[in-house]
Fold this protein.
Amino acid sequence: MNEKHLAKNRSWRDRRSARTRMSAVNGPLPVVDVILILEGTYPFVLGGVSNWAHGLIHGMPDLTFGLLFLGAKYEHRQVKYALPSNVRFLLEIDIYEYMPRDFQKPRVSPRSRRQKAISAVEQLCFDLQDGHMASFDRVYESLSVPILSIGDLAYSRLGWTLLNAIYTAKARTMAFVDFFWTWHYAYLPVLNLFYAEIPPARLYHTICTGWAGCLGVIARKRFGVPLLLTEHGIYLNERRVEISQIDWKNNNGEDHEIVIPSGANYFKDMWNNLFNAMTRLCYDRCDALDFREEADVKVFYLNAETENEIGLAYAFEKERIDAIARNLRIIGDSEISMITLYGKWRF
């Protein structure tokens, strides 16, 4: 456990964002043993993953937990479970919410540093279109100091210039209005995660890749503590199925179908590559991976060499784990308990 990181970030409780809502806690936030990062599930949604998370917390009364729930937009959510006594707080982060404080002007900084940050964000957007996040560290360092706000990136002249540069380089044959809204709903939430005010913990445990996995990687880098990923299915494959089933045709505003009048395949690829990128990042940066799916789900890797698109490859066994990440520990045997994984970091 890196106590310097925790001590340095204890002031987090004094600068909570308006878009980060808190409940189930009175007073300052404690440093907990584990923060579970939960995307659209426990404790607001009933189901198998939620039951698993609830049982996990109940089964480890000697550990303290924090719950970090990721939602889309602000709404009143009803907790569906009686939170165990070892849950110290519940936070909600809505990835599509940009609150007034997010539009405050950053402190004055040299133009060269500001331009460097803009260049890093632009490169990340290019990377996302190619299905990876190789520029993650560069963007993290650029946005970890108040040079750019999410308001700058979302609605300012600076953001408009950035958007136009990406559109001209990557999508100039597509309808600009479609690219504009895809940018707002696909890429801005990723950038918004870099601004999330995450409380410190001794371990972060994400229950999927995607937005939650990306936030987990940011937390791991910010506090210098381990990140554990549990896969209950194949998140990326589930998103790809959903994207393939969306009706992308132009409806001229007559109903509620998604309106993509031109370049449907381009925008499908844009979304697919976004989830590819976040999945790659999480698998590459997590310290341990646990599979909860029984059936025939095997350890997999993301293959960038397929002919038409970056896709999943289910082609190898555990002896080829090094192809995923050199330092990644894979746990796939059902008899190995989560206590074993948590115990690895000696709370």
Observations:
- Confidence is low (pLDDT under 50) at residues 3-19, 250-261, 294-329, 332-336.
- The CA atoms of residues 67 and 90 lie 5 Å apart.
- The first strand starts at residue 20 and ends at 23.
